[in-house]
Fold:
Amino acid sequence: MKRLILFFLASASLTLANAQIQFGLKAGANLANLSGSDATGSKMNVGFHGGGLVAIPVFSGFSVQPELVYSGQGAKVTNVDGNFTLNSGYLNIPVLFKYNHPSGFFAELGPQLGFLLSANVKSGGTTTNVKSSYQSTDFSGVIGLGYLMSSVNLGIDARYNMGFTNLEKSGTGGTGTVKNGVIQIGVFYLFGKGPNNK
Structure:
């Protein structure tokens, strides 16, 4: 049994080594907003995102990229209740399926699960914690484009994260829907040698 386990571990290690897996860091700007019947009067709120990623080649030209990213979201709102800004922070875990063209351009698509870390409403000089009024998780779809300079392992990307979850909890006064929508523009750096490095 021990020999069998060692054999599988050795095989897995060899597979991972041959796959040329790369780890990376990323950061950039968010243009966040809210949509839905209870999000009238919402305007873009500028935030930031940053975190880490793993690029895993699966076969020629295609890869899978799971990430762990902090994302500052929310919106600026003007409605019958006045003017205020919702600042929300999420820990997002996207798992993206990527097509990588030999030119360096790539397209990506996949699901994302977000965990709400904070939610505060700022109005005038007052800040109120409203985290308990919102769902603790947010499921989204991600689509994006980018370019990787493989010679220096540096890239840029642009994404849109479209929220599918109604963020308002039942019984908190909302009768409609509020969903996240975030445009992300960022840069990333990959460590190590990837499949496109010669």
